[in-house]
Each structure stands twice: as C-alpha cells, then as structure tokens.
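Protein in question kept underneath.
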Amino acid sequence: MKAHPAFGDSLIAGILLIFDLGIGVAMAGQGMSFSAFLAVTVLMLGPLPFRRYHPLGTSYLILAGGYLQLFTHGIGTEGLPVRMSDFALAIALYTLVANTTRKTALIYLGWLLAGTLLWAVFRVSEIGAVFFVFLILVIFGFSWAMGEFVGARRAYQREMEQRLVLLETERDQQAKIAVGEERSRIARELHDVVAHAVSVMIVHADGAAYAIRSQPEMAENAVRTIADTGRLALTEMRRLLGVLRSEDAETQWAPQPDARGVVELAENTRAAGVPVQLEITGDVDDLPVGVGLSVYRIVQEALTNVIKHAGSDTTALVRLARTPEELRLEVTDNGFGTPHDVVKVSGGNGLIGMRERAAVLGGEFEAGPNPGGGWRVRATFPLAA
C-alpha cells in the first residue's frame, strides 16, 4: 500500500523537531529563551505536512519563523549558527519552485537571501560568514534545481496525460466516422442489391402473370428467373448483414463483385425483357478493386433504372473502354422515362450513390437525358496513378 505524501512530510518534520528540541533544551541552559525557541520551531516545522496542499501559505509561514528566529535569538547572541528547523526554508523554496510560478519562487528567494545576509552580518564572525553563506547558497541552489527538475517532470506528465486524452478522443471520433462511413457503404450496397433484384423480379412476375395461360413455358422460365434472382439477392443481403452482426475479428469476407460481373448484369436485364448491348474495349479483368466494384454498381443501378422507368420497346447500350490512363463507362437507353421520377419520389439516392462512388476514386460522373431521347449515364475513373 502506497503511503500518503503528507506522511513523509510529517515524518521529516518529526525528525527535525526531535533534534531541534534537543538543541533548544541545551541552549535554554545557556540563558536563551526556550519559549522563543519553541515558537520558531512551531512556525518552521508545523506547516511542513501541509506544503503540498497550500505551497504559498506554508512557505511564508516558514519564512516568518526564520525571521522570528533572526530577531529573537539570532542577533547579538552566541550559539549554534544553524539549527535543524532552518532546513525547512530550503524545503519551502523547493516546494514553491516545483508547484508555483518562477516569479513567485524568485520573490521568495529574495526574502531568503535578505534574511541570510542579515544572519551573516549579525550572527557569525566575519571569517565564518563566508563559509556559512556559501554553504547556505549551495543548499538553496540545490533546492531550486530539484524544484525545477520535479516541476518540469510533472509538467511533462500532465502534457502526456492531456495528449493521451486527446488521442483517446480522436480515436473515438475516428471510430464514429468509420462507423458512419461503413453504414453509408452498406446502405448503398443494400440499395443496389435490393433495387436491382426487386425490379427484375417485378418485371418477370408481371410477365409470368400475363403468359401463365397462353404461354405456360414462358411463365415457367419467368418464375424460375424470379427464384434465381431472389436467391442471389438474399445471399448478398445475408453477407452484408453478417458484417453488421459479426463480432469475430476473423470474419470471412465474400468476394466483392467487379467489372467482370457486368456481363451477368446484361444477361439478367435481357432476361427481364430489355435488350442490352454490351461493348467492352480493353482488358477490364484486372482493374483495381475499388474501380471494379464501382463500375459494377453503377451499371447495376443504371440498368435497374432502365427496367423501372424506360418503358416498353426500350434498348440499352453499355460501353466500357479502358486506356492506360483511364476507364470510361457509359450506359444509354432510348426509352421515354427518366430517373427524374426517382429524384422527385425518393430523393434520388441511386444517382447520389453513383456520383459518390465516382468521386471517391477521383473520377467524374454525369447523368442526364440524351439529345435524341432516353437517358445517359457516364463515368470516368483515372487509372494512371
């Protein structure tokens, strides 16, 4: 169990008090006033246990004891030039240097030096004054140096504690930001998965309902496509929700889709009744992971909008062109509907998500109506870096 700091101060004061009282009894036998001696002892040693809590007040009480000693049994008397309680003056100087400002400590040191000069002039012989003054200055200098060292160490510790608090706060803020970004990413992923899958399922369900009596084979194929699309969507949703639920640091992550999945997106859209032409120039198999995922999601969202809003007799064209410097993506259709309807109804999260995906990777995004009708989505991703 760690002892309280005041206990150590009380122990030091007690040891000095024992020696000081012994000296006081001996001096009383030589005619010195014991009551004055005891008053000085109480003033100089009594405040020591409280110096950590009230450094300025206790130090000046000790200084008052020193001056009382000087004027009651110091001037014009013979005896010991130094008594044990005088060491409290050095302890008080150390306390002020370590716990207060340097200006406060310098003022206190000035009073100490003035008292020391008076003591040397009136108490000690001319030859002895030089030695004792030098010894006292050495003690005061040592006290000042120790106070500077301890004060600097405490200031360093306080600064480190403040830095740790700031680092912990910054870490918490970074964690909150990371959580928010992850939630936004998962929300975009869920939006892309659900919107595309549900759109395809609705189109096929309408077709199956229309052809169930006249063309049962076509209706059967449509229902089968609905089931396959639902299973794929459910698998991706389970993967994304598993990320939110998992507390295991070694969670196994499923591969993210990339630009190679655009071929499957085109086939699914054709199966939904919208003819899609796919043109790929250059090698898109080894694109950076972020670019490949963004290309897949932008094409998925664009084709979903074509299915939902372009109307019948609509065709779509998907172009991917890779050069050493960049990747250009374009999705166009010749339908009569536009995603402006989505913007008015739902706030346009699909277009916002596509724009964010391009911006995060330093690319450019553009969406708007074609001059000849229909809708066009363009995105450019830099690859040189």
Summary: The longest helix spans residues 126-211. The two ends are 61 Å apart (CA to CA). Strands lie at 276-281, 316-322, 326-333, 364-369, 375-382. DSSP finds eleven helices and five strands in the chain.
